Amino acid sequence: MSALAAAQAPARPARASLVVTRSDGAQDCPDAEALAERVRTIAGANVIGVGVSAGSLDAPVEQARAETWVQVALIRNFAGFAAQISTSGRRHGTRTLEDLGPSCGNLADAVAVTIAMFLDPYENSPAPTKVPDRVAPAVLAKPKGQAVTGTARARRFYLDGAGGIAFNLLEHSEPFLEVGAGFRASARWALALGGTFVFPDSKLDGTRSVDLRLSFAWLRACARALGDDERASLAWCAAPQLGSLTGSGQGYQNNFSRHALWFALAIGPEVAFRFTSSLSWLLSGQAVVPLLEQGFNVESDGVQNSAYRTPSVAGMISLGLRGHL
């Protein structure tokens, strides 16, 4: 009779509920039912149900009301797969898992193990009694949306150094060097201040020439569009440029040296690849549009001619390093 009673005893109902969302490109990742089955297999017990209504107040009597709600967002990006696990109810917080593999299998297993480890204590202990809110220790509750992974401690300041080629910025394509210091205001937005030095160029006119030099400061704002700072990311940046354009005549009857204001706007993408905890590779491209038309004239036999005029549009491509502080 005891054995019969044990066989007829209902299994302990799940006191957690699971919801899964999958972005474009992540359709081969498991849905909520498949992921919940993996969790139950790993935990060896019915620790989680599926759907926002699992364990709700209007559920059948033999079901228990859910104590914990688990939401998993599965995302595919150019670096691989990522999973954002958010929990609410008895405990709440956020955890991010990533995998660079070509399929979602390894990430799905890691997510299932993480959820099973999180929920297993509920199966091995009796249902908790409700504690009045007025005596609940405040330390047990974490602020909503607070991350519990190392990404919450991401480094916010950085230093950049890069070199590249400027196309049509002066008379010919010339190399340039730039340095900058930045601050990441949030997970998406960053602001940097720096300067660029373009190597001197010359415009030849027979035995005469006009030597050109350009240097400017910039204030760059970037908005991240894809990826994250811990792996790889793509951001779109815009930067006003303010500096000095110098022209010096050589070989003329009356040589000259003049300075003109350089004022332009640069817009383009920036790709960062993190290869250590403190260093990243940077690859960027910018379209440069001068907002002021400047130039230099030369005089020959009493007639003035244009020796140089700023272009209507130019381009800059650079490769560099970013140090995270």
Task: Please characterize this protein's 3D structure.
The protein is mainly beta and 325 residues long. It has 2 domains: 2-151, Rossmann fold, CATH 3.40.50; 155-324, Porin (Beta Barrel), CATH 2.40.160.70. It has helices spanning 2-8, 32-43, 105-123, and strands at 16-22, 49-50, 68-77, 80-89, 93-99, 157-167, 174-184, 189-205, 208-227, 232-250, 257-274, 279-290, 295-300, 303-309, 314-324. The strands form 3 sheets. It has an 8-stranded antiparallel barrel with strand order 6-7-8-9-10-11-12-15. The protein has a 5-stranded mixed beta sheet with strand order 2-1-3-4-5, covered by helices on one side. The protein has a two-stranded antiparallel sheet with strand order 13-14. β7 (174-184) and β8 (189-205) form a beta hairpin. α2 (32-43) crosses α3. The radius of gyration is 31 Å and the shape is rod-shaped. Residues 1-10, 54-63 and 131-153 have low confidence and may be disordered.
